[in-house]
Amino acid sequence: MKFPTKAEVVAAGLVFPLVDTVIVALRLLTKIRLFEKMALRTKRFTVDDYLIVFSLVSRRAHETTDSTNLPDYIQILTYGLSALTVADGAAKLSVLFFYRQIFGGRPFNILSWTMIALTVSWMLTAFFLNLFQCGSHLSAQRSPNNAIKDRYCIDGFKITIPMTVLDVLLDLIILIMPLYWVSSASWTWSGVHNR
């Protein structure tokens, strides 16, 4: 297995945030253009828009925060998986609320609210497991001394692996969720549900 070079890591660190930002900006600009084109009386962004912007901003804040001079509890919040699970969870919720604007019906409502509840549960569980992985010894999590980490902290892999598996499963379910409704729909403009 070949590890990426420093240049490849730097390139990915520059390209992916730029692509994320451009995609979210295009999404919001498209919505604004639709407001103007359709001459809608109520020009408003919806929950999915706010969630994706929150996800983008929190991810960028996580990437740019120098937490070395901050108190321990702030370092833990801005460092590691705690902040990333909130950003990832907000992105998942954004997609689910976007689906709710397109698809309707009792079965879809039950499925979408179930997925929203599972996503929020995953997000909160991952956040707090990472935040309190060392119990009340918050400074131990960032300690360079492995003996301190071994004494106070749960092994990070015991948290990360199950939460990552659940993360991937949620992503897969969210991606395949609308397939039945897309395949069985006869698409007309009047068939799109407004919520």
Please report the number of helical segments.
9
Fraction in helix: over 70%
Return the string of H and E elements.
Answer: HHHHHHHHH
Secondary structure category: mainly alpha
Main beta sheet: none
Seen as an oligomer or otherwise, the chain set is single chain
Radius of gyration from CA coordinates: 20 Å
pLDDT averaged residue by residue:
79
Head-to-tail CA distance between termini: 49 Å
List segments where confidence is low: pLDDT < 50 over at least 5 consecutive residues: none
Topology, element by element:
Layout: H1 6-38, H2 47-64, H3 72-78, H4 81-102, H5 106-131, H6 138-141, H7 146-152, H8 156-176, H9 179-184
Helix pairs in contact: 1-2, 2-4, 4-5, 5-8
Protein model, in words:
Helices cover 74% and strands 0% of the residues. The chain is globular and about 65 Å long. The longest helix is centred in the N-terminal third of the chain and has 33 residues. It has nine helices and no strands. The protein is an all-alpha fold. Helix 1 packs antiparallel against helix 2 and helix 5 packs antiparallel against helix 8.
